[in-house]
Design goal:
The chain is mainly α. It is 51% helix and 10% strand. The longest helix is centred in the middle third of the chain and has 26 residues.
């Protein structure tokens, strides 16, 4: 079996912030699988998710290796932000207000991100980019919090859903909002195999 790493993750959330939240596998289990164990993993995932270029991801990883305390602090910030985002979206799924401290954290990070955000024209529209020094380790979080703000203020939020198998979050764009799994090829097949086993066990019993 291939090793599970930050660069092999399926990006099925439908929004960058959800893909970031989904860097933990099996939320409901007693021992969820963590894909981001240090800053280097965070940078690798950032490149995988399209947040960082290959060169910038490498530069940030090298910078982090020489500034370990700062890198550990930024990693902890990322870890806490991810947990807060998960709780904010989980509250949305059950029509509850988010915890005040989680929303406060998101707003704080959003303020930092927007202070660095700039608009850049392309051939036919504009895109966001982040004005940061090449060695600014925290810049990886800017597009994530921007994505969260965009999702929380959009109509797509009504289509937020949770995989019944692993707990990953995703935007359900199916016609009848009937999608139950993050991935039919993984969690869907896992659920079907479990049901098949249970039916066979019931017959044999």
């Amino acid at each position: 079996m291939a090793e599970k790493t930050a660069t092999t993750l399926s990006l099925i959330g439908g929004a960058l912030c959800l893909d970031f939240v989904n860097t933990v596998e099996d939320y409901r289990s007693e021992s969820p699988y963590e894909y981001l164990t240090n800053f280097a993993d965070l940078a690798s995932w950032g490149h995988h998710a399209g947040v960082l270029t290959s060169q910038l991801a490498q530069e940030l990883t090298e910078t982090a290796a020489g500034r370990r305390e700062e890198a550990a602090r930024i990693y902890q910030c990322a870890f806490e932000l991810r947990s807060a985002l998960y709780r904010v979206f989980a509250a949305q799924l059950i029509s509850r207000k988010p915890r005040a401290d989680d929303l406060a954290m998101l707003n704080e990070r959003l303020g930092e991100a927007l202070s660095r955000g700039r608009l850049k024209p392309t051939e036919d529209h504009y895109v966001w980019y982040w004005k940061s020094e090449a060695d600014d380790l925290v810049q990886i979080l800017y597009p994530i919090v921007r994505s969260a703000a965009d999702l929380l203020t959009s109509d797509r939020l009504a289509r937020l859903s949770e995989c019944v198998e692993c707990g990953w979050l995703f935007i359900d764009m199916s016609k009848n909002r009937s999608r139950r799994w993050c991935s039919m090829g993984v969690c869907g097949n896992r659920a079907k195999a479990r049901r098949h086993y249970q039916r066979k066990h019931d017959v044999e019993s």
